[in-house]
Structure formats: C-alpha cells, structure tokens
User: Fold these one by one.
Assistant:
Number 1:
Amino acid sequence: MAVSVQIVLLRLALIPLDLYRSTDFEVHRNWLAITHSLPLSSWYYEEASPWTLDYPPLFAAFEWVLSQAAAFADPEMLRVANLEYASWATVVFQRCSVVAGDLLLVLGARRLGSTLGSSAQGWSTALLALVGPGLLIVDHVHFQYNGMLFGVLLFSIADLEAGRIYRGAALFAALLNMKQIFLYLAPVYFVFLLRGHCGCVFGVGPLGIRLNFGNLVRLGLTVLAVFALAWLPILATGQGMQMVSRLFPFGRGLTHAYWAPNVWALYNTADRVLAKLGFGAQQGASSTAGFAEVYESSVLWTVPPKATFALTLLAYAPLARLIWRQTAPSSSLPLPPASSGADAAAKPREFAAMPEAGRGRFALYAALGSAISFACGWHVHEKAILMVTVPLIAAVSAVGGPEGGVGDELRQAAEAFSVIGTFSVLPLLPQRCAQPRGGSRSWRNWSGTVVWTVAHR
C-alpha cells in the first residue's frame, strides 16, 4: 500500500514540472471546450480545431462531466476559440484529472487480483498495473486517460472471472462506447460468452446447434441497453453517420507515423529496402513523414484496410478455437445450489450459470486478442501495446502465488513483453528527452528506461 502511495506521488510530482505537452493535451482541452460550450448537436461537427472530437459518445460524456469541474479551475480553457490554451491552472487541472482516473485502474486491478487469488494478491496486482513505465509515459508525460479505461476493462474481466456475466458484459459495452480501440477484444468476448454463457454447441439437436436462447436474449438486451443509452442522444441530433466517420477514419494510412512494432512495420521496411536496392522508387507521401494519411508502397502491394481486417480475423482463428475448446458450455452443467449469507450476496444466483473461466484464463485471452489486433491491424498506434501488457501483467500477477496456475515460462514472457512494450512507446517522449543531442545522453536515457522497467519485474 505504501509503495502504491509513492507511485501516485510520483505522478503528482510530474505536474509542476510541466516539461512537455503533446498534441493530445490540446486535443483533450479542445474536447472539454466543445462539450461544455456547444450544444450536443454540434459536438461531432465542430471543426474549429484540427483536433476534432473522434471518440465514442460515453467518452464525450466523460469530457462534459469533467468540463463542469474545469469551469471552476479556469473558464478560459472552455472556449472553443482558445486554441493551444495552456494556462497554469489548465495544465494542473488536466494532469490531476489523469491522476484521478488512475484510481479506476487501481480498483480494477485489485478487484481482478482479489477475484483470482487473495486480498494480498489484489494489492500486488494493483501495484504492478500502476507502476508500469509504459503507462506512465503514455498518460502522464504524453497525456491520455488510458489508466482509467484499463480500470474499466479489468473490472469487466474480473466480473467474467467471477461469473458475473451481465455486469461484465455491460462494462465492456460501456468501454466500447468510450474508446473504439477496445474492439480489438470484441472477438474474445463474443466467442467466450457464446460458448460459455449461451451454451452454444454445434452438431447436436434437429437443427445441428444447441443454444440457451434465454441467456442469449438476456445478454443481448444488456449490451443493447448500454449502446442505446450511449447512441440515442447522438442519433436524435442527426450525428450518427458523422460520428462513425470520425471513429473509423480509414484515410489515416496503414501505419502510424511512429510505426508501432507490428507486421506492417516489417512490411514497410521491406518495401523501403527493395526501393533502395533499385526495384522501385518512392511514390507519394512517406510513411514516416509524420502525417496521418494513406501512402503508396514503392515496390510491394499497397495494403488496403480490408486486407488488414481479413488478416486479423485469420490470425484470430486459432485463439477463437482455443477459447471455444477450453470453455465449457453452461447448458451442460447444472446450476450450483443456492448459497446463503455473505456468499449469496457476493455471487447472485442469476450469474451462476457461467462455468469457471479458470484462474486468469480470460485475462490471458484478452491479452492474446489484443496482441493479434496489434500485430495485424490498420493504423495501429504504438501505445496500443498497453492493451497487451496491462491485462497480461495483471493476470500473471493475480494468479502467481506459490500455488498459481501460470508457469514460470509465461511469467518470464510477460515480463519480457512489458520491457518490449515500454520501448515501443518511447517515441511518445519529447524529442529532447528521447533523442537528445549527443550519443552518451541518448544512451543514458534508453539505459535508464531499461533499468527502471526491469527493476519492477
């Protein structure tokens, strides 16, 4: 607990330094201004700033709630015309809001750890989730709210691990309506719930399929209710298609300007090498020019979004098959007898139809699903690697006591992947920090990152 407090204090200590503000700092200030100063009907049409609102409606609602408090800190930050506004009060308020959002990460990680193990493991999981250098770089130096969103994800995973299916599904539906990148995990949830909660079995019965339609309907209504709550205000104001075009801007190109370390980074490298060897010439925009736009490959095939989608689904197939085989259909298992007292309050009977996921198994499924989408997806940002490392480290920590079911090899792989993930987000550091003048200083910065990461293994 004391270490957790020290880590929070480290985050707070970064605020007065204010050594660096990325474009994302202005992005979120602008979203505060849009949601506070403009009517709902204009939120997804506003274009005064290049940093238009392009997150789903529940995150826009979060910005609106945050803007009510921001008005007390500095009302000028809430003017749409005040582009690049960054008063001292604005900086402190926005950075404190990120630190406050980390409370959800701590609580979500603790819930997952306690669900899979003991209360002590819950605090250990929370500590490891909070101490990750990658998340510190992305949220508290670069500036985003990923810690808060990962907290919601870990709460959802913990509920599924505990058999609280409808609440876990509702939390994931809410998460999809906060940041669309969590669609990476949708196949994992779909296959796991279809097989486990809805009891889907092929090759039986007169129709060749057995399915618990009651569970399917209840689950579907739960998810639809969350989407209706999020989307109806947007649809009622005629912004539905406009919002969709913002959420999925396929004109941004195959790779992000910094090149997340995935399949397409290797593909682009091969294309450049072939061009250098004389097999072709650079065509159009460069993939590393820093612009989010489609560019033509010099030698190799120019990959369209549909191809990356197809490859992602193909890569997902082995994981989907694994989830299907390792998850017992609920209809094949009798309901456990109703319990009484505190146990009954902790595990309501309507959730008891879900078979045990296994110690940390679903969290590992989530990490693997994120890794597949990260490796093969369209325009993947380097910070998306946190979608792999956070649930993976949380799962391994939660089940990793003396009697844990996760082997040493998996633990070592998770630790190594955390180090690699930290390196992949280093481009988000300001240029003067990540690549200072002079090779020795650059070497010290990189070495310091490695030492810091390994020290928290």
Number 2:
Amino acid sequence: GAKGVHSRLRKLIISTPLYVCQTKLDVKSEVEKYLERTFYDLCTLNLNDCNTYTEMRSIANERYGLNLADPYLPDGSLDQGVDFMDILRDLDSFIAQYNYNLIEQSFVERRPERGAKYLNTMNIKCLSASFKQHGLGVVSSAVNVCYKLLARKFQLLTEFFADDNMNSLLSREFRWFDNQKNIGNNTYPFARASIFAQEVKKLEVDSGNNALDECRIIISEIGNVIALGRMIRAAKRSVFSDELPFLPSYAIPADASEGPQSKPNAKSGLHDAISAILTKQDPDFVRAFVNVFRGVIQKSQSDNSFMGSFFCIVPALCLCWMEASIQGKEMMHKKNITRDGYYTDDGFAVGLAFSLSVLDQTKTYESLNWFKSIQSKYAADEEDLMEKKKAQQVKRNAKISASKQNAWFTSNTEDNTQEEDAEMTVLHMMGKRLEGNRREMAMLFFSMHGARAFFKDIRSK
C-alpha cells in the first residue's frame, strides 16, 4: 500500500552513505540538493506558489526526514485578492459595495469599476493570506472597526423606526395582529403584507430611496458587518491550524497546572505562559456584539419602545428583498447596466436574524407563521394557474377540431389559434415568474434559518 511505499522510500533516503568506486554517494544529501534547487527555480518563476512549496518542504521533512532550506523569497499567494488593510481603511464603502454569500462564505462586488473585466471577491482564504502577511495583531483592530460601524448602522435603524409616520404604521399592524391572535388566527396573510409594503414605500427619506428600500439596505449592511466578523474569526482559526504542524507537542507539567507557586522562577513562568495560551478560548465576536447591543437596548427600553413592533415589518421587508433580488439577477444579463446587478445578497438574512436576536423578538416573529403563509399563497396561485392552462388548452383543442370539420373558415380559425397561443405564452410567463418568486423566497427563508443558528444559544438576561 501507500504506507509501505513511504516507509521503504524513507529507509532508502535516511540510509547510511554508500561508497562506490571510491566515491561517496549520500542519497539524502543528493535528494535535498535537487529539491532545494528545483523549489528555488520554480519559486522565482512564480512567487504565487511559495506557500505550496513551503507545505511540500514540511511534508518532505515529516515523511522522509529531509531538511530542506528555505529559499527566503518574498511570499505571495493568489488567494489574497483584495488586501484586508485596504478594506479596513474604508470599511463603510466595502460594506455598501459588496454582497455576502452565506453558502460560499465570501463577499462579491456589486458593480465593477469602469473598464474592469471581472468582479472582486473576498473569502476566508483572502483574509488568512492577509493575516499571514500583516500579522494577527490586526484582528483586534478589525473587530473594533467592525463594532463602531455596526453601532452606527444600528443607530440609523433605530432612527428610521423612531419616525412618527413609520411608528404609526407599525403600531397599527401590531394592534391588528394582536386582535387576530385573540380570535385564534395566527397567520399573517400575504395580501396584508403586500399592502403594508406599498404603504411604507410611500414614505420618503433623505437618501432618495423609498422608506422600505432604505430599511432593507441598512439591514443588509448590518448583516455584512456581522458576516465579516465571523469571517475574521474563521480566518484567524485557519492561520492557527496552518501553524500547528510546525509546533512541537507540549505537555503541561503537573506542578504548573496546580497554579502559581510561592517562589516563581523563569521555568514556572514559562510554563504558566504556555498553559495560558493553550487553554485560552477563542472569543466569539458575533455573540459579543449581540450581548453588547442587547444590553444597551434593555437599559434604554423606555426610550426605544417603538422597536417593540419591529417584527411586524419583516414580511414587508421580505417582499421588498425578493423584488430587489430578482431585479439584480435580471440586470446581470443586460449589456447596459443601469443599476447594481448581483446574484446573492445573504447579508439581509444575517442582518434580520441579528436584529431579531438583539431585540429578543425571534419567537414573536415565528408566531407570524410567515413562511406557511407564503407557501399557501404560492400553492394557491399555482393551482389557479394550472386550471387556467387546462381551460385554455381545452378551448384551443375545440377550435382546432372545429377548423378540421369546416375547411372554408381556415383563415379565421388560424387567427383564433394564434390568439390562443399568445394567451398560452402569457400563462407560461406567469408560471415562470411564480416559480422565480417561490425560489427566491425559499432561498431567503433557508438563509434566515441558517443565520439564526449564529445566535441560537444566546439567551437574554
């Protein structure tokens, strides 16, 4: 097997030197010289492969006992992409210009710069490469910048709901749903959510967008900040996992684990420092953000009482997100791009889950049974559409059979058949639109379900 081949090669490489015709033949030395020369030549041709050859040197040392020298060339990596330090300098623009993909754990640029032929992306590998280049000292600064930006965005969200007109609409929806619960109706209807969305869109904001779009954008940017915080933690762990094979095994002495001694010395101090590093838990930035914001909301609950009905606007926001997502995907297929074209925007789901968790309204939102309402609405629409298609097909077949019986009126019959075909085409287009809406809403609810897992174990105090 493979293990047997490796063991035989290792025995051959580490064997003692051979003397052939008064010439010393050292297999290990010759292999090391050949690999060092090959790795150096290939690294000079393409610096992006330096990390790959570093891993190969580590594998050669671990499996075959080869001690290969480092070429000391500047490391480079194609995984780095956008430099994380440039992002931190203008994090607000990055959050507004990039969309988050929950499945791939990456950010994708909304609209490229003029003349660009590709979209910039950033994933965990990019962050890991940046941390290896700049050091892990930037993590604390990055988390601090994310917290400050998140505080500003959440402040904008509270100011949006503090508006008298918005507060009046939300209070009306809250009272209506409370009355429906008292009579046993626990499902928020699709028709009422659509009407409420149109009413909110009539409100004007300073940015030029309608109020519902402005709220959706703020929540998406909040979700992007939360997603970036999770990616920073994952990239930090990735760097640690890459460095673990190079660290020797360390067993904490029994006397060091007993606590500080009465007469500390250099040896005990070293043991204490290493044991503190090995036993220290990795902080969860997202949970820290939730606890901080939830504590602020609870302390100023009397001043932020208008946020108690936030869950009532979630159905309208979902419909607004669905329309924007479909328009973004359609814009990607056009040559003349007049607005942002994108295929993913999971930051909205993450931001919505974060806001509901901070306001402690996740259970209240689930009481709306919004997903069941959406499913029943689309199921009823699909059934109605199928009945229309069947009736249209029966009508078309009847006209075709009548045309065969009376050949004198073929021209009029052909015109009627073309009209029937046009009506069938309209029904097929309606079916595709219905299927597209259902797919977008399903993806949104799946993303929200996944994002809620980030804050699942966080309990309100």
Number 3:
Amino acid sequence: GVQIFDLKFEEDFVAEFQANAAEVLTSGRPLSESKFCRAFESAFAELVHAPHALVTSSGTMALNIAFRAVGVRGKAVIAPSNTFFATQVAVENAGAARCLSVDCEPEFMQVCPKALERLMSAQPAGSVAAVVLVHVGGIIAPFAGKIREIARAYGAALVEDAAHAHTSYLDGVGWAGTIGDIAAFSFFPTKVMTMGEGGVITTQSEGLYEACRQIKAFGSDLSGGASRFTCVRPDGTNGRVPELSALLGFLECRRVQQRVAQRQALVAAYVRGLEGCSAYHVLQQPGGSCSYYKCIVRLHGIDRDALRAFAKERGISFTGEVYHCGVHRMSAFTGATVTNGDAPTGGLSEGQLELPGTDEACATHACPPLYPELTEADVLRVCAVMREAATQLCGGSGDEDGKFAATAIVNAATVELPCSGAARG
C-alpha cells in the first residue's frame, strides 16, 4: 500500500541529533532560547532570504504574534476562508474586532484580487489592520504581488501564512516569507520541515522583528537584562522554544532543499501519470521553485469521497485537503461577524455568507499522498488507481485529453465565480 504519511531521518542525522542533544543537556546552558534557537533562526533566515527570523512554539503562535505586532487589536483582519482555521483562531486571539472572509480565485484557490479590492473598498477608512495571504499547498500565486499592492493601498499590513511554503520562490514576486510585511511558517511533523512542533516568523522590518521578540517573551523589555524583566507590552504571550526542538529544526535546514527537490520530482510524476485523464488536473506553480507541501488535484466529474474510498480499498490513503470546507462554513464562525461586503444571501444564517469560489474549490479537489519518502513508482501506482477510479466512477475511459480546462472555464462561468478572469500580477 501507499500510506498517508511517512517521516524518516537518516542515520547520520539521528547520530548528530543525539550528540548535540547530549551537549545541550550537559552544557549548563538554558534548556530553551539558547544556542540552537539562535542557530536555527540564522539558518532558516538564510534559506528563505529574510533578514530577520524568530522561532516560536508553533505556527499558530507565529501567526498570533505577527498579528499582535502589526496591531490588529480592535480592528478588522481580512483572511481567506480557504485556509486551516488556525488562521482565524490566531486573528481572534490577537484581539481583532472582526475577521472578514474573502473569496478565492479558481486557479490556485488563493485570495482573489478582485474580491479583495471589492471588500477593502467597502470598509471604513483605516479599519482594516491586516490582510492574510495563504500560500496554499506551498504555491506562490502569480498575483501575490497584486494582493500586496491592494493591502498597501488601503494602509493594511500583508501577513503571509506561509505554513506550507518553506523555500518557495516565484520570479517577479519573491521568496515566501519576504513578500508581505511579516510571515509565519509552521514546523508541524507533516510539514515541509519539522521541529516536532514549532513556528518561525520572518520579516524585513527591524521594528516588527523587535516587537515580535517582545511579544514572544511575555511583552518584556528585553534590553533590561535577563533577571530584571519589566513588561512594556500588555499583549505579550509565551512563544518560547526548547533547545531540543530548535536543534531538530536547525538540522532540518541542512536537508530541506534535497527533500523539496524530491517533492518537486514526485509532483512532476503525478502530472505525467495523470496526463490525458480529464477527471484530474494537478496544480503547479508557474515557474520559480515550489515546496509542494501538498499535491493538489482538481477534480472534474468524480466525487471526492468516492475517490478516497476507492483508493483506500486498494491500499492508498489520500491526505487531508486544502481545504475540505471553508472556514465560513464552520460552526465556530457562522455566527461571527464575517462578511464579503455584501448582504447575506441564499437563506444563510446571520453573519454567514456566500463565497462561491471557496465552496467550489473546497468541494472539487483531492490531495493524494506526497512526502519525500515516496518513490516515483509509488506515485505511478497511485495514478493507476486514480485512472481506474475515473473509469469506474465517471463512466469514462480515464484517458480523454484536454477536457478539464474547458469544463472548468464553463463551470466558473456557470457559478459566477468572483474571480474568473481575475487579475494576474
């Protein structure tokens, strides 16, 4: 079979981790926020071409601190509904007055520039503190620069949720983690890199970096000496990181490029293996280098749950989608103040809204297994099962050429997706 996930560490990696862990435990240094935290920050900053990096206890904590640093308390934040809901949870915990959901465009399932412009223009001047851009699956969309321009035009910070996008880069746009004012990466075990649990904030702003350092350390004045802390920020929290977690992240920095190259090769294998099958379309970043945390496959004429069950019966476990359901459809947020600038329609409950692009994207994609421990032979086996599913579940041959793109355009026009024909920048 092909399992949902696997994570292996080479023998020399394990040996080096063990040797350094022993050194940490016998060094007499603090067991958190010491040598390896600083070494990891430096190594990761170099990887993503960011002048400042700050390690945190989780990716969600990185977002939480970033939102506090850009000043969302008492103001609005605009975030995509097509994201892991930790994005909105971090907005809430940072003290924002409300989180406004913006629809996604159909090609990359990311923030739609037209929808964002429409939503921003409907808000009172100065009321939106931040816009969130999520690099879904690690892909940097070619219009990311346009999102940045819109945010800046309205005086809002652009916060990158780069949880999937370690080392992603797109010509003409930049490196994930340097496109916005501030960014947050996740190092959960399934991510492109891991430190067990952890996160990193990156920014090009010295001021935001120093603010994040203070917030992470309870709101402390860090210039006063380690034994004489005073609180200078009431929005502080505890995002401190153990040395052993940082050690794992530091060692991961040495192998991530090789592992990303393997992810890229596996996605290319998926493209080849599904070529000509009109039921599937693999999303790819148009140029540059992508981390490919997920292999995102858009579906046409095949039910996702039926596909997943079909594959499971044959020993293949699909991974979680990005995402199976928009945040605006989740019970924690349906009664909250979320809007796209329009009056609620379609009989939705108060505070809920219609985001047709998000609903369409969430319902019509699947994510087959993708991790560096897979081989291209594994991928071709998955593709064979997916082709078989297309034949049996769609009633087609599974190898018809060229129909997906045309049908997708027709579908986008039919449901009047707000970003069909969205600006590319």
Number 4:
Amino acid sequence: MSSLSSVTRRYMRIVSVAIVFVMLHIFLNTDQSPPSSPRRFLQAKTDEAEDTNTTTSDSISSVESNYVSENNLRMLSFGTSRTWGSGMNHPKTEAYPGLLNSRNEAIRASDSNYPAMCTYSMVGQHDILDVITIEYMPMSFWGTRDSILQLGRRLRQRFPDATIIFLNVWTPHQFFHKGTNIGLRQFVIDNTDMTGRVVLPEGALEEALQKTSNQDWEFYGFNEDWLEDAANDPLINGTVLSLPPPNMEDPMLAILNVAPLYLKDMSHFSKLGHVWTKNRIIDILQKQNKKRSDRVNPWESTDQCLSWFETGQSLVGTNMHMNEFSPTKFGLEAYLSKPLNFLELINENSHPEFLYLSHMSTGPQEFYPEAIAEIYSNMTELEFSKSMSFHDVKKKTSSKHILTCYNETPPQLPVHVVSHHYIGEVPPGRSFLTLKPNMEKTYPFRSVGIILSPKAFGDKVEAIF
C-alpha cells in the first residue's frame, strides 16, 4: 500500500472526479442498483478468512435483531452522503442510520469540519447519546485531522459513557490504474460506451477489469490513519469499524468482492452496503455489551449554527427581506441598491467566536453577485458603513471577499448549493455583520445561515444542504 505523499497528484484528480459524482447523485438521483449481480461476486472465496475477499461475503446476511432498539439505546450518526443515504429511494429508512433507528445528522458532500464546529448545535443542549457513529471518507480532500479530533473530543467530553465508532470503510475509488494514472471509476468510464448514458451500464466494471491484469492496479489508503489516531486518542477512546484492506495479491477479486456494497458510482453504499454497515455496528455493540447510560458532563464549549434555508425562520436580527426563492428554500437577500444590509450577531461566550456565513452559490455559471462582509462591534460603526462603497470596504484588511461561483464545475452538472465561508472573529456581546454586493446579477446575494464556533477550520467549509 503506497503512502499519501507519493500520490498527491492522483489524489487531487480523484477528488475532483468524486465531487462530480456526488453532485450527480444529489441533483439527478440516478442509480440505486449495485454495480453488478451480488450473487456472482459474493460467492468468490479464498483460503484467507480475514481477507477482504471473504470478509464481505461472510457478513452480508442481515442481522434480524436490532440491538439498538432492543436495549433502548440513543444513537446519532455523523457523516457524508454515504451515511445520508444518497442513491436510496428512501434514505431515512434504507440508509444504515435508519436501519438502526439512529438520528441521522449526515450532510451531503461534507467533511468533518462542519460537525466539529457545530457539535453542540447538531446534538442539542439536552439530548443524551449512548452510541455515536462518525463516517468521513478516508480520501476526503477537505476534511482535516484537527477537525476529526475536535469532533471526537467534544463528543467524549459531553458523553463519557458513549460508544464512539469511526467508520473506516474503503471504496473502489481508492484503486488506481498504473498505466493511465486514473482512478477505477474513470478507467471504467473510459473503457465503456457511454453514448446516451448517464450511469454505467450493467457489467461495465467486470468488462473493464477483463482488459487488465492484477499487476495493473494499486490501492491507496489516503487519510485512514486520521481515523485510527482519533479512535486511539486518550481524550476520545473510540472504536474503528474497518473493512480489511484489499488483498493486493489479487486486487481484481478484491474489487469485485466489495463492489456489491456500492452503487455504480463506486462511492455511495448500496442497500447491501447499508445492511453490511448496520450489521458491523451491531457486532461492536454486542461485543461491548453496550447498555444505556444517562451520565453526561456539562458542555465544555457551545456554538451557534443557525440555518433558515429550509424553514424561513431566522433567529438573528436583520434588515434584510426573507424570500422563499424556491419551494421550501429561503434566503435573506442583500441588494446593491440598499446602503445597508446587516445581520445582528450575539456572542454569549466570554471569548471571541469564529464566524462563517452560509450563502447560496452556483456553478459553473455565476448567478449571484460577489459580496464584501465586515464585522462591526457597535451601532456608530454600522451607521458609518452606509456611506462606504463595495470597493471602499474591500480595501479594508478587516473585510472578507465572498465568492459565489464554482467555476470548475462541469457544464453538464450545474449546481445551486449552500456554501460556508469564513468571515472573522466575533467579540463577546453584540456585533453586526454587513454585506455589500458588488453588482446586480440574476439573483441578489442570499445568506441562509451563520456558524459561530469556538474553533475555525480554514476559509471554507464543505457541507451541502
């Protein structure tokens, strides 16, 4: 298994491909069947019982009992679109959190930064948890080691008796073809007649692999050590649910064996994959003889992660108009013609908090204006800002330039999504965030939420609502 440092270029390429197909599932909801018939691949056996070539096949059958429900355990699941249930007809009931009666707080096309900053808001002030699952793909480009640790530590500090499970389940995306330096899925696409097709046809994976040999494939674990480090952190003391690494003596068989766990995008769980994950979680809980516990500690730190995107109900003071710009989609709109567009911020802590603004973005075409954001700590400064133009504010080092376009999005997959950009530090007490658009565009600048957190993770957070 090669190290991360040796594959940076390929890593960047495959992440770009992964983004494209995440968007494909979100907006087209295309495919819900596994890549090929599970019967054929799951019957493949080798003599190594612990090998991936047998582990999957020996554990697919559904566990009839639900240990979580039977023991009245309170469970919450964090994660990406895999945990959310992308590709399922009924994500709430068919994804593994639904199969376990778990609260599902997964966010599509996300990394661990958002829940690490918004743990208090997402869990709830008074909720008690016995089981917590955390699923962020090992190859996540945006996710950081610090945010995975932050999330685990905040949860452990609050819930000392909870079982915290980190999912480390590799995907076929992590295989690369040596001769072409491209990922498995792209290799299959390049070797398949895709005329008039959006998803891969039945048998495409098998046919593409027949054109290669075992020596043509290599596997990269990417950031899997982040999950192991988090689970072993003494301030977390978690458990890792792992799919054993593929047997690289026969990588093609390993690919075919794990393929039924995934849809044809080779990234999101199939129904079989969700059942497999549910069963492995139950295995862990049974081995621990997990029982309900009401013991909690006071939250060490709080946060305010507010969204009015789907409710139209804003808890912040503002002079901007709330518009339902699409059915059940709401935004506070900032106009170039208004001298002042502001949000009122209340930091209830005794220390500064880090502010991110959630707003609408599009790609590859730009339908929203750019904006300049600045934080003011009193009404006098706020009133003075009325006389300042976009370019005046942009010159100030304390201001933040907000871009609203994903320029690199493929034309065939246009997106209209929520973005989260870092603005700056908010002092304790009352402050104001002003927004100055740079021009008139198809739509006005639309804010849909704010994040006030005790810790920041970069200039941008990936979490598509």
